[in-house]
Amino acid sequence: MASAGIVNIRRDVDDKFYRYRMPLLLTKIEGKGNGIKTVVPNMSDVARALSRPPTYPTKFFGCELGAQTSFDEKNDRYIVNGAHDASRLRELLDTFIDKFVLCRSCKNPETDLIILKSGRNEDVVRDCKACGERTDVDMKHKLVTFILKNPPKNPKKSKKGAKGEANGNGGGVHASAPSVPGEENGSASGADSDDELTKRIKAEAADLSTETKLANQDWSADTSPEAVKARIKALESKVGGLSLTPAGGLGDDDGSDDDVNSPYAQFGRWVEENKVEEGVGAVQIYQKAQEFGVEKKHKAVFTLVQALFTVEVVKEIDTYKALLAKMITSEKHQKALLGGIERLVGFDHPELISTVPKILMALYQVDVLEEDVVTQWGTHSSKKYVDRDTSKKVRKASEPFLKWLEEADDDESEDE
Could you tell me whether strands 121-128 and 28-30 are parallel, antiparallel, or unpaired per DSSP bridges? Predict the structure, then answer.
């Protein structure tokens, strides 16, 4: 089967870092005369990216075109009778996505189809995992009858890892790219192939001249010991006089926590000094982390949170979601992320304490924070990152979000 390109699930969104992606629908005309038919060879991959059974969009095509459809799930063949070009079916797929995938409220594709029963009546609704809304589908559409006869198997609520770990899970949780042959899908191979951020890094790196690279490395006009100490002192004053790493350390053997020349301290200073003046983006920040050799270290996540985020942290999480997904790849990374948030709202911006639920929700929605990790964090205060009183205060503020997680789980249990 020919490999398909990758496109945004919402094709009206022209954003390379839009996290909801799917393979471009492919078609193949077979037969002739009255036996001519259109096969969709990658329907399973497309449907998996949409968290829908492949029979649903195939049947939708048949309803819209007035054509017979057939499915051979065992052999992965999905067929629409008649000759239909790819562009027409792609347009119909956009319509299917709008009617049966996108949340009507927030237009996010991270939804499950569920069937609600009330007496003899059954309603098909889209249950949005992003905004929590449940919105009806067009119950008059012919596909609804098919859905009611072939109900979806709803996945359990899960956020299995940041980005790569969530890919290829058969639906339920959307990842930044679908499971497509030849594409990164977070499989057991662990191959760190070209995901969105990596592709952009390579593209921009190819355009960098030697002069530009040297300019990027020369990030400080004055590198004397006195100037370095002055900058780190000014930066540390913004986080309550504490260093960029917690007193106990995070377990990475790359310089002591008090060393102003450790790679983490240098990385943090660079981000702090360049994020506003130079307006650096995710690619430049990740390249700088690579230069310091800390791009895979969980301590670097802790440093990044303090150096990068401001009072606009909720908006900034969305802006830098690709960077966060690239750097947060394990439970340790997530714990370091939460530790950085504790420092951010506990010392740097205490006025943000009341917005902790929004911050956690933003991190949860961009798939860098798992439900189990944040739940455990919320029930156990610690003095690893901040003092005990501040730790308790931040966790107390997080209770609305933790309650929302618990209630969402209860709702799903009832639905099942």
Answer: unpaired
